[in-house]
Amino acid sequence: MKKHVVLYKQLSPALMERLQAHAEATFIDDPKRDDFARLRAALPDAQGLLGASIKLDATLLDLAPQLEAIATVSVGVDNYDIEDLDRRGIALCNTPDVLTETTADTGFALIMATARRVVELANMVRSGDWKQNIGAAHFGSDVHGKTLGIIGMGRIGEALAQRGHFGFGMPVLYHSHSAKPAVEARFNAGYRSLEALLREADFVCLTVPLTAETEGLIGKEQLALMRPQSILINIARGKVVDEQALIEALQSGRIRGAGLDVFEREPLATDSPLLRLKNVVATPHMGSATHETREAMARCAVDNLISVLKGERPTNLVNPKGWEAQR
Ligand code: 8YV
Questions:
Q1: Cα–Cα distance between 79 and 57 in angstroms, integer?
Q2: Are 251 and 296 members of one domain?
Q3: Do 269 and 131 belong together in one domain?
Q4: How many domains does the chain have?
Q5: How far is ligand 1, taken at its centre, from the CA of residue 50, in Å?
């Protein structure tokens, strides 16, 4: 008898077929609607879940007594209480690697767009306000040769360093839990304390996972260490930054600008002061959002889920304790 999985992120027909060869699959569109009513109704019969962007807390997991596996279509796992999943014997799988390059591309898109004021100036053209050769009032700042500071030197941080070092001739500084000699050798990168990096970098790029340790990592005190011409780039999670402190730093000109793909609350409120600041480029959590990469992520999630349901250790297991507790 096939096991039953509930999907709260749509799969392509090819991936749906791949999954249905191994399990009965039910897709729930817009799972947050009616306070998750349809997801709640489906959980009691589910042995597997596949999706992203929903906090699967204890109130939801209590409704899923048969649940064996959660396959998140994301590399970030801040929507999950790992210790609770371990206690429940639920294996959590994620999708690292397949999204690294695309997310780093998004990081550089924000670096370029923010430094060179691309969105602001493109909107000027679109609105018919380009009346003459642009002057100093519309100049941006260079990216090539400037100092790239990366907070969090994991896969995505390394991919950013690669782009900065080889692509833009940027000196690379980084802050991480520990020094990374291989990264330093490959990109001529320098390890810095958080404070030193904030003081020295022209671009401060956040790529850390959201954890109890990184929540609020960049607040008023940290922003005050940045240079007036510096730009903050966040492709990590919104809650890594004190958003109100960032708004104040941007409004006061304490820092030059910010390129933000993630926010404390998403979607970003339409009345957010961030949307009224010309020195802010705000994008809708699009870090991994390309056709190719999202399909690769979904395939990775499907294969992870199939493995667990077949009793095989999945490739991208986040919580070995949760997996072992099932056995
Ligand atoms: C999102 C991301 O997961 O992978 C992550 O952690 O932040 C993104 O890829 C995506 O928005 C949901 O699939």
A1: 8
A2: no
A3: yes
A4: 2
A5: 13
What would the pLDDT profile of 251-297 be if each residue is shown by its tens digit?
999 999 999 999 999 999 999 999 999 999 999 999 999 999 999 99
Domain assignment of residue 155, given as a range: 100-282
Catalytic residue among 195, 213, 221, 266: 266
CATH of the domain at 117: 3.40.50.720
Instruction: Please check whether residues 314 and 271 belong to one and the same domain.
Output: no
Say yes or no: 254 and 307 in one domain.
Answer: no
Longest Cα pair distance anywhere in the chain, in angstroms? 71
Amino acid at 194: L
Inter-residue contact 160 to 108 (CB < 8 Å): yes
If one counts every other C-beta atom within 10 angstroms of the C-beta of residue 105, the result is: 18
The whole model's pTM is what? 0.96
Q: What is the mean pLDDT of the chain?
A: 97
Question: Does the annotation count 285 as an active-site position?
Answer: yes
pLDDT bin (cut points 50, 70, 90) of residue 326 is confident
264 and 192, same structural domain? yes
Take residue 209 and report the two structure tokens written for it.
Answer: 């996972």
- What's the 73 CA to ligand 1 centre distance in angstroms? 7
For 31-70, the pLDDT digits (tens) are 988 889 999 999 999 999 999 999 999 999 999 999 999 9
